[in-house]
Amino acid sequence: MPHKHIVLITGGQRSGKSGYAQKLALSLSTNPVYLATSRVWDEEFRQRVLRHQADRGPEWTNIEEEKYLSHHNLNGRVVVIDCVTLWGTNFFFDNDSNVEKSLTELKEEFNRLTQQEAYFIFVTNEIGLGGVSPDPVQRKFTDLQGWLNQHIASRADEVVLMVSGIPMKIKG
Fold first, then answer.
1. How confident is the model at residue 2 (pLDDT cuts 50, 70, 90)?
2. Lower Cβ count inside 10 Å, N or C end of the chain?
3. Residues forming the annotated binding site for GTP?
4. Which CATH superfamily is domain 3-7+26-119+132-157 in?
């Protein structure tokens, strides 16, 4: 059984975060969990989700959960949470772009989830590396994402920054 451990994998879009997370999980478990946080907005997106599940293969236990990750018993499992950005989006959207309320709820849910004895691999985006958005809602979400990433990183045993498919260990 894996011991309690938290890994945060961060980086830009298409930097190799999810692939790295999945390889790490498979190196630790023959039956890891893929906890997908994406909200399925339409049929095209549902088809995309089904393709991704098929691509991962039968060794994965796939769970779709938009918000309440701690409702799933993950004790003793290796779990990829993909991704923090979409997870945060779900709270932000449901809370009418209220950053403070969303961040409080996300931190509480993260803390409940990580009380379980599992090996957690969180995938997130560094969305604040680009310029400042002219859109005020996007700026608010960038703040939320940055603060949530900091919360997870402060509690993580390891933090890996992906750059052009190359993992760079920055903590642990």
1. low
2. N
3. 11-18, 36-38, 64, 82
4. P-loop containing nucleotide triphosphate hydrolases (3.40.50.300)
